Amino acid sequence: MSPGVEKAEENLKKLRKLILWGFILVITLAPWPGRAADVPAQDSRTQSIEELKKTAPKVYLDCGSCDLDYIKTEIPFVNYVRERKEADVHVLITTLDTGSGGHEYTLTFIGQNRFQGQDDIFKYFSHKTDTEEEIRSGLTGVLKIGLMAYVNRTPIREKIKVDFQKEEAAPSPTVDRWKSWVFSLSSSGYFSGEQAHASQSIRGSFSANRVTKDMKFNFTGSASYRHDRYTYEDQTLKSNTSSYSGSGLFVKSLGEHWSAGFFYSVSRSTYSNYQLKLNISPAIEFDLFPYSDSTRRQLRFLYKVGPTLAKYFEETLYDKMKETLLGQSLAVTLELREKWGSISTSVEGSHYFHDLSKHQVSIFNVISLNLVKGLNAYLFGGASLIHDQLSLPKGGATWEEVILQRKMLATSYSYFLAVGFSYSFGSIFTNVVNPRFGSVSSGGISIDVD
Predict the structure, then answer these.
(1) CATH topology of domain 51-165
(2) DSSP letter assigned to residue 12
(3) Which of 27, 34, 221, 236 is most buried as measured by Cβ atoms within 10 A of its Cβ?
(4) What are the domain boundaries of the chain?
């Protein structure tokens, strides 16, 4: 074979190899059916959202009664953290009872770190007849609106859509035919038993309330009966206790710091040896802070004075079957709810005028503190010095009455105390909601303004 022919065949082999590798390359890179040719573009969009989420505000929710999983699912466009000092926004949610039996939720938005000084306050009102779903949905809607002031200053605002639903017709004026009065009735029964013990109890209650901006009236009445039967070998012991009570108050506003009114109560209790106990006490109160700040801070001084009419089942240690007593009391209450925790402390002293040795002093505390990052402590307790048990029966109590707690016993003091702490560490983020084995919720990124 001539050199020219050999060279031509060699060039032809190289051309064939080149064509073959080119064909393999085309097959490898071509978007054949079933291949996700658009995967890179989808990953790019997903990555874009994740990058935006990293710049979103860090939020610390300070609310003991909120459905946090529901909120995190409905508002996923912020980062939730479990440590308040790491947050850009500290949302403090406090509540007050309303006159209609619902609640007033105050949402205080406190800017921190990059949002330092940017604070705001929103309110949400629930009604007594609202379901749990309606309350958490309404509260979450207000929370969304409040967070938008912070979200708007971050790049993730590009992914937020705000909708406005127009009213088809103007709502008719609301006429309150009940004139702010709210009434409630309730009753319950409890029955349990086993071979050695059986118990039955019945309870009922009634309340009437009227609350306006300038006044508040409240009355609550209740009655209860309980029967217990104990059987041991051939012995049977039965115990019956009953009581009824009614109490309430009327108070008139005298401005942002002063209030005046009176308390009243009537009761009957076999345990306390009261066949009838009737009291009415005019009262005046001063709050160092404005009442409008009551969800966050209060320092109240409450003074009461008034007569008590007492009639007993059994003759008392002081040889009385009935008597009229005049007494007074002063209570000082401090309540604070701040970023560092909460404090609720009350000190009360009372005495009867006919004998100053017949007095009582009580203190009650609930303290919860965020000490350092991740470390929280609480203290819950109270104590009383008791020297005013005027209703103690002269005949004392039998062993059965002591064991079954059918009669009040003499004591000069009482107390209770609970202390504890918690410490958490690890990731500061709490964005993920996992509903498996419970806590089912759903939602998406949206803002609705009704």
Answers:
(1) Rossmann fold (3.40.50)
(2) H
(3) 221
(4) 51-165, 180-246, 254-423
